[in-house]
Amino acid sequence: MQTEVSQEMELLREDGRIVREGFARRPVWRYRRGGVRAPWWRIKEWDYYAVIDQARGVGVTITFSDLGYAGLIALCFVDVKHGLFRQVDTLKPLTRGKLGLAEDVDAPHVLEYVDKTLSVRLERTGNERRLAFSDAGGSAGSGGKAGAGARLEGEIVLHQPPEQERIAIATSWAKKRTAFYYNQKINCMPAQGWMRAEGDEYRFSPETSFGVLDWGRGRWTYRNRWYWASASGLVDGVPFGFNLGYGFTDRSPASENMLFYGGDIVQRQTSEEDRDKVRPQSNLRAHKLEDVRFEFDADDYLKPWKVHSSDGRLEMIFEPTVNRAGRFNLLLIESDQNQVFGYYRGRAVLDDGRTLEFSGLAGFAEEVFNRW
């Protein structure tokens, strides 16, 4: 049973439970941190970006999260083609929800963090999301000029037309209904900009490069394991992507499994004055799937994965090239993450019955266990 919600409403009732659980193709729920019935250490908020150039097989991920007892900010360069990654991160203790993550995913806002390890600036304005970043404490302002010795830096603009559909989901835990997961994934955002990493410079073009935003807010239970997969690229020149996820909360109201297809790649302006700008034009539409399952070897995450949906509309093979693994255990807090990047091939059936065949689509899949 898939409950689609289309009417705008508050996310939570006064008692802290979700007003109406389900999924949506746009942000219909209004999240207010002050309405969450939980102590500050149980509220989890994060913005996570992944941008991949499908032509060269390189990308960057940015994590900006506030877990209450700590904030985690991370940059990661990923070379999918050659199976390499390098990450730099920082942990700020006792942030208590004060890092400034927005209550509205699409409202104009700026997230900024700078320390001796890294610099990140995430800005939402108009139909754009601007990502500026640097390690080694360099400046991540306009122009993206980093300090001496920086090995990873860049500035990338993601274009998000207002009519572009997404997956939004609001579900709770069966054992505690005031514990909830409110999440939005915005796939297939064309990317334009540059990045320097490990001595090489990369250009992101909206004809070949796409980003995804994972925007999450919630009151979580203490121990959880989840599975997530995502990719954004092209099939025969048309934007195509997917979001797949399961493993925690009661998903009987809805899954977050969605295909995305359609629309135009952003078009470049033709005037001399605006030659470096792009104009977003998209009618990217979301196509709902039922349940999905990942089949993989937990002893070797780099072996091929099988991915399939219960409704038979998605069958894929995922061939990993690199595992962005990370683990820490600090008494009461533990995280064991395996985020694997590689290439997808398979077939997908849209809502109208059309079948898409694809291969060589760069993306990622993950299994994560957290105790926090």
Structure description:
The protein is mostly beta strands and 372 residues long. The protein has one domain (23-371): AttH-like domain (AttH-like fold). Helix content is 0%, strand content 58%. It is built from no helices and 26 strands. It has strands spanning 9-10, 22-24, 29-30, 43-53, 58-66, 70-79, 84-93, 109-114, 118-125, 128-135, 152-159, 167-173, 176-197, 200-204, 209-219, 223-235, 238-246, 258-261, 267-268, 278-279, 285-288, 292-295, 305-309, 314-330, 333-349, 355-371. Strands 2, 4, 5, 6, 7, 8, 9, 10, 11, 12, 13, 14 and 15 form a 13-stranded antiparallel β-sheet that branches. A nine-stranded antiparallel β-sheet has the order 21-18-17-16-26-25-24-23-22, with no helix packed on it. Residues 141-148 and 268-272 have low confidence and may be disordered.
Condensed summary:
The protein has 372 residues and is mainly beta. Helix content is 0%, strand content 58%.
What number is the mean pLDDT? 92
**How many angstroms does the end-to-end distance come to?**
31 Å
Order of helices and strands: EEEEEEEEEEEEEEEEEEEEEEEEEE
CATH fold annotation:
AttH-like fold
- Percentage of residues in DSSP E strands: over 45%
Described by strand count, sense and barrel closure, the largest sheet is: 13 strands, antiparallel
* Spatial extent as radius of gyration: 19 Å
Broad shape: globular
The structural class is mainly beta
